[in-house]
Amino acid sequence: MQKRILITGAAGFLGSHLCDKFISEGYYVIAMDNLITGDLKNIEHLFKLENFEFYNHDVTKFVHIPGKLDYILHFASPASPIDYLKIPIQTLKVGSLGTHNLLGLAKEKKATILIASTSEVYGDPLVHPQSEEYYGNVNTIGPRGVYDEAKRFQESITMAYHRFHGLDTRIVRIFNTYGPRMRLNDGRVIPAFIGQALRGEDLTIFGKGLQTRSFCYITDQVEGIYKLLLSNYSLPVNIGNPDEITIRDFAEEIIKLTGTQQKIVYQDLPENDPLQRQPDISLAKKLLNWSPKVPREEGMKKTFEYFKSLSKEELFKKEH
Ligand code: NAD
Ligand code: UDP
Questions:
Q1: What ipTM does the predicted assembly reach?
Q2: How would you label 50-78 residue by residue, b for 16+ Cβ within 10 Å and e otherwise?
Q3: pLDDT in tens, 102-120
Q4: CA atoms of 76 and 5, how far apart (whole Å)
Q5: What share of the chain is helix, strand, coil (3-state, %, to 5)?
Q6: In ligand 1, which atom is closest to the CA atom of 14?
Q7: 20: number of CA atoms within 13 Å, CB side?
Q8: CA gap 250, 209 in Å, rounded
Q9: pLDDT (mean) for 190-216
Q10: How confident is the model at residue 28 (pLDDT cuts 50, 70, 90)?
Q11: Does the CB atom of residue 206 touch ligand 2 within 6 A?
């Protein structure tokens, strides 16, 4: 019998790639999104398929799906710092009320549910690299707290449903992931730098650029999530690429990649911007026999091709 999977946040970057993956694996995909930061163009190629349907719905409101459900992937949430600073209450609600609704649905349908957590649960980490055992360093009342705490609550309520209701649950802690279909104006560093290069603007580094990140290409991330869902492991698992780089060196790489003549300019570092971030992926390697395959150079080339293919209108569209 064909497996049925509900994917929330389906019109977003990660959600749309997950829809593609599960379609290609022969699943019946039920996509759900309220389009607050997503775009239907990311999934419009799936609309003609018989094993795909889309619900325009806000998951903080009661979620009803007719028929059986085998799996739920809960990916709905603003994910970039400028998005969640712009819509802080919705961010808290989708992580808390939205997750509660989806756990309730999973319980009713006896479905396995995987929730999208984040490296942000580690906050501005005092331990490096970050392994799943680290409890994190989050400022609950700082501007990023709305996202970090929503995701920490999401993990807690998921474990509570697992422990108290015996629900089959998975938690993926996603580290910075990139690739085609990221929104050009979502403010994250990769679309920001590439967009600036394509528009002929200077590249804006926040702070001195000595903060680090470790970027994972989308196909690697999707494969890790897929393997985790099909495992039987209920505690959190880091999925990311440990190849760490400072934002300053990364800006230099993007200048080379894009061939831009523009320079780097320095702006204030946002409050509580983590100083360093690198996943310890020993657990994912051991448990899932998974490790990232796509080197940054290759992934960034593909990502640049995608952004280059966007229209002038999209390139110059102002959102913020
Ligand atoms: P995205 O903004 O591209 O996608 C999020 C999607 O969720 C959007 O389509 C948006 O419209 C939808 N959404 C938001 N609130 C909703 C609601 N209340 N009801 C229904 N739909 C709603 O972001 P993304 O990068 O694809 O992130 C997807 C998930 O992965 C998020 O949960 C995010 O926290 C998590 N994550 C992503 C990264 C990353 O590097 N991309 C890192 C860590 C965690
Ligand atoms: N950043 C930057 N310039 C930009 C956008 C981001 O220097 O135009 C920095 C940001 O301060 C952070 C890093 O790049 O240190 C990664 O930012 P992003 O928003 O992509 O993700 P996150 O901070 O959530 O890891």
A1: 0.98
A2: eebebbebbbbeebebeeebbbbbbbbbb
A3: 999 999 999 999 999 999 9
A4: 15
A5: 40, 20, 40
A6: 26
A7: 17
A8: 9
A9: 98
A10: very high
A11: yes
279 in ligand 1 pocket by Cβ < 6 Å? no
Determine which helix (DSSP H) or strand (DSSP E) holds 114, and give its type and residue range: strand 112-118
For the entire predicted model, the pTM comes to 0.98
pLDDT per residue as tens digits for the range 205-217: 999 999 999 999 9
Which pLDDT score is estimated for 256? 98
How much is the pLDDT for 317? Answer: 87
Instruction: Report the atom number in ligand 2 closest to the C-alpha of 251.
Output: 7
Please work out whether the CB of residue 12 comes within 6 Å of at least one atom of ligand 1: yes
Percent of the chain past pLDDT 70, that is, above it, reads 100
Mutate to test the pocket of ligand 2, among 206, 250, 275 (most ligand atoms within 8 A of CB): 206
Identify the band that residue 66 occupies on the pLDDT scale cut at 50, 70 and 90: very high
User: Which member of 71, 84, 122, 147 is catalytic?
Assistant: 147
Distance CA 119, CA 172 (A): 9
Q: Is the CB of 215 within 6 Å of ligand 1?
A: no
Tell me, what amino acid is at 226? Y
Tokens of 23: 């379609």
For 237-274, how does the pLDDT look when each residue is reduced to its tens digit (9 = 90+)? Answer: 999 999 999 999 999 999 999 999 999 999 999 999 99
Please tell me the distance between residue 188's alpha carbon and the centre of ligand 2 in angstroms.
6
170 lines ligand 2 (CB under 6 A): no
> H or E element: which one contains 99?
helix 99-109
Distance 189 CA to ligand 2 centre (A): 5
Task: Give the list of residues 6+ apart from residue 65 with CB closer than 8 angstroms, or none.
Answer: 6, 30, 55, 105, 109
Residue 320: predicted pLDDT: 59
Q: Rounded to the nearest 5°, which phi and psi values hold at 28?
A: -95, 115
Tell how many helices (H) and how many strands (E) occur in the chain: 11, 13
84 is an active site residue: no
